[in-house]
Amino acid sequence: MPFIPHTDTDVEQMLGAIGASSVEALFDEIPAALRCGRLDRVPERMTEMEITRLMHERADADGRPLNFIGAGAYEHHVPAAVWEIVTRGEFYSAYTPYQAEASQGTLQVIYEFQTMMCGLTGLDVSNASLYDGATALAEALLMAVRANRKSKSHRILMPRSVSPVYRQVVHAICAAQQLKLVELDYDPATGATPEAALAEHAGSDIAAVVIPHPNFFGCFEAVDSMTDWAHANGALAVAVVNPIALALTRAPGEWGEQGVDICCGEGQPLGSPLSSGGPYFGFMTCKQALVRQLPGRIVGRTLDMDGKPGFALTLQAREQHIRRGKATSNICTNQGLLVTAATIHMSILGPVGLQQVARASMANTRKLVAALTELPGIEPVFTGAGFHEAVLRFDQPVRPLVDALGERGVIGGYALEGVYPELTNCLLVCATETKTDADIDTYVQTLAALMRPASAA
Amino acid sequence: MTESLIFEHSRPGRSASAQYPAGDFDVDLPAGLERTSELGLPEVSELQAVRHFTRLSQLNFSIDTHFYPLGSCTMKYNPRACNRLAMLPEFLSRHPLAPVSASQGFLACMYDLQEILKDVTGMKGVSLTPMAGAQGEFAGVAMIRAYHDARGDTGRTEILVPDAAHGTNPATATMCGYVAREIPTDDNGDVDVEALKAALGPQTAGIMLTNPSTLGVFERRISEISKLVHEAGGLLYYDGANLNAILGKVRPGDMGFDVIHMNLHKTFSTPHGGGGPGSGAVGVSERLLPYMPIPVVGKANDDSFRWLDEDDLPQSIGRLSGFMGNAGVLLRAYVYARMLGRDGMHRVAEFAALNANYLMARLEQAGFDLAFPGRRASHEFIVTLKRQHKSVGVTATDVAKRLLDHGFHAPTVYFPLLVPECLLIEPTETESKEALDAFVDAMIAIAKEAEDDIEHLRGAPYTMPVRRLDDVRAARQLDVRYQPDDQAA
Lengths: 457, 489
Prior knowledge:
The structure holds two protein chains of two kinds.
Chain A: H1 8-18, H2 48-62, E1 66-67, H3 80-86, H4 89-92, H5 104-121, E2 125-126, H6 133-147, E3 155-159, H7 164-174, E4 180-184, H8 195-199, E5 208-213, H9 223-232, E6 236-241, E7 262-266, E8 282-286, E9 299-303, E10 309-313, H10 320-323, H11 336-372, E11 378-380, E12 389-394, H12 399-407, E13 410-411, E14 414-415, E15 426-430, H13 437-450
Helix pairs in contact in A: 3-11, 5-11, 6-7, 11-13
Chain B: H1 46-57, H2 80-86, H3 89-92, H4 104-121, E1 125-127, H5 133-150, E2 158-162, H6 168-175, E3 179-183, H7 193-199, E4 204-209, H8 222-231, E5 235-240, E6 259-262, E7 282-284, E8 296-299, E9 305-308, H9 327-365, E10 369-370, E11 381-384, H10 386-392, H11 396-405, E12 412-413, E13 422-425, H12 433-452, H13 454-458, H14 471-476, H15 484-488
Parallel strand pairs in B: 2-3, 2-4, 4-5, 5-6
Antiparallel strand pairs in B: 1-7, 6-7, 8-9, 10-11, 11-13, 12-13
Helix pairs in contact in B: 2-9, 4-9, 5-6, 9-12
C-alpha cells in the first residue's frame, strides 16, 4: 500500500485496542446513504517508476524554449545551492512555526528575510510574505484604506501602467470591501503616468496612490513626484516594485520628501523558478507607524527564559486565528519555502551579485531591442527610460508570430492588445542576464524568417 | 545550539562570484534615480551561505525527522518523487504565459488533476488557482456572493459559522463583505440544529462547515443541515481542512455542499514548507460553475488543452493570482494522486481513521480524558487536560513543550477554542504503529511528571536550541529586523 506502513498484524492489534470489528466500522457514524462507492474517474495507481516516465514525457513535450518574455515573471539564474537547501526535509516538510522552540531554523530564516526586504526597500518593517505580487498589492491597498483614517472614500488612484492582471486581482479581492479603483492613463509617448493624470484628482478624497516601479511596460515612473503628490493630497503612497530593479535604483523608503508608506511586489525574481506561474511569493514592507495594520505573519527576536536570544511569531493579535472576523486579512500561510529560497538567493548573490544581475538584464534588453528594431517593421513604442522590458510595435499582427515562434522554441514576448486595446500589434519583450548574444541572434533570425515583408503587409 | 545571523558572517568585499555575470554593463538610468543607500544584503562566500542555512535547517522539527501529530494540519509524508518530478527542468523553466502550443504537457497534468479532484469530491467543476486554504475560502464565499447577486438576491448579509470553526472562516466572510454569525455546538460536538434553525432566514447567504468538524467528529446531521440551509435560500460551503478523514469514503458533493476548497498541502501531501506554499483548489456544484475563478484548464475541439478565461466564464469571480496559482504545488499533488490511484484514495481515510482511533483508544486507556468520549475519532481527536489542570496545574502548553524533549512535535494546542486545555491530535495514515506507541509512552511519562515534579515540567523544553520564549517581550519590544547598531549597545 503506497505510503502506508501497516502490516496485517498491526491492523489486527490496532482494531483490537480500539474494540472495532473492522476498519469499515470506524466510519459507522457516517450515514450509510451518504457513503460513496468506487471512484471511477480516478485512474489506477502508478508506481514511482511509471509516474516518472509519464512526467518526463510531459515535460519533454513542453521542452525548454528560449524565454524572451517577462510580464511579471522573470527567468533569472538561481544558484544550485538554493534549491538543494530549500528542499532539505527540515525546511520542506516543516509546518508553520507555532512551536517556536522546535522551529528556530524557519523563524530565523524569516527574520533574516525581513531584514533583507527592509534593506532593499528602505522601509522599517517587513512581513513574512504573502501569496504573490498581485495579491500583495491587493492586501497593500486594503491595508492603506485601514491605515488612512482621514480618508473616507476608499478611492485608490491606479495607473493603467500597473500590470493589468494585478489590477484584475485587486478588483476581485477588494471589490466586496468597497475599494474603488480610479484609473490613471499613461502618456502614449513616454509610457509613464503624466503629472496631469494625477493633478486632475487634486483636492479630492483619495486613500492611496499606487506607484509601479518599473511599470508593466518596463518604464520608470516619476516616483518622487508621485510620492510627494500622494502625501500632499492626504493619500498614502503604495509602491509596487520589482526587487531586482531596487539593486540599482533608489529605495522606495527614500522616494520624494518622506518616502512611500507601503512597498509590495512579486518576489519571484529572487530565487523562484518560473514554474508556470507559481509558487512565488509576495512581499510587503511599511513604515514603523503602520506595523499593526500589516497583514500576514511577522517574526520577532526575543529572549528565552534563560535570557538567550531566539525567534517567535509576533503581533499575532492582528491575525485570523486570534481576531477571527476582525483580522487584518484572512491570510493564514505565507510562502515559506519561497521565502527560504529568496533568503538564500540574496545571501549568495549579495549586493554586488544582485546589482550585476540587474545591470546585465538591462543591458541585454537594450541589445534585444536594438537587434529587433533593425528588422523592418518593428519600432519601439515608448521613449521613456526603462528597466529590463520594452514595448515594440510591429507592422503586422503579433499573435500569429508569437505562436509560430513558440513552435520554433522561442517564447517571443507578451502580446499587449488583449489587455491594452490601443497597443495593437505590440509586444512586450524581456531579456534577462540569462540570455547570450547568440540567444538574441536566434530570436532575431527566427523572427525575421516568419515576418511578412513590409510590402505584403 | 544556535546559529549567528547571516549578517554577522558578512565582510565587505566578499562575494560568491561564480553566481553572477562579470563585466561592466552600460546602463542608462535616469538622473536622480540611482540607488544611494546600501542594499542591506550580506557579503558572504557560497560556502558560508550553504553552511549557515544548512545549520538553520537543523534547528527545525519536520515530518522527515519527527512524528508531527499537529491536529488539523495533516502532517503526512511528502513523497520525494512529487518534488523531484515537479522540479524537472522543463517544468521549472516554463513561463506562465508561454503559448498553449508549447504547454500541452503541463496543461495535461492540470486537466487530469481537475478531473481527479472532481471525482473525489463529487463536485461538477474544479478551479486550481487559489493559492492556499484561506484563498480557496475566499473564492468559495465570493462565488456564493456572485450567485446571489446574479439572481438579484442582494438582501443576504450573513454567513453562518460554527463556533468551533477555523479563524479563517469568519475572517473570510468579512473579506467578502458579509457578517459572520456564530452557531453553537452541542455537547456531542455536532452543530446545534435548533440554534441553526433560529439563525437561518432571508438574511442568510450561506454556511461554512468543516466535516468532520474541527472537534474531530463527523457531523451526523449534515443532510438535515443541508436541507435547512437550502430551504432558507442559502448555500453550503465545505472547508476542506479535514478532507483527509473522508477521502474515498464520503464526498462533499453528496453531502449537499455547493462549494468546497481542498487543502492540497494536507490531503494531497504537498509540502507545508515551514508555512507555505499551500494550495486551495476549489470545487463547485452545477449552479456555481459559471463563477469559478479563472483560469481553468479545458479541452479544445481537437482534444488539445487550452485555458478557459474571461471569454469562457464571463461571470467568473475573476483572477486571484498573477497567473494560475501555485502551479508547481499542483504538479506535486498530481504526482501524489497518480501514485495513490483509485484504491489509494480510499486507503488514505481508512488508515488515517485507524491511526487516530487507535491513538485515541490507547490514550484513553492510559488515563487521558477525551473531549468527546464515545464518539469515533475522524482522522483526529481532542484530549482535554481540564482535570489535570485543576488537580496539579499542568497546562496544554506544558505538555506540548515537554513532548518536544521526547522527540515529538506537539499536537495543536488551544484549538478549537471552546475546549479547555486541549490537544488536537492528528497522526495521519503514514505513521507506523511503533511511532504511535512511542508517542503514547511519552504522554504517559509526561502525565506522571506532572504529578511528581510540575515545576520541572513547566521549565520544558530543555533540549531544544532555545527554551520557552518571551512572547510578551517580542510584541512589546518589537525587533523584526537586524540593525547592526543594536549589537553595539
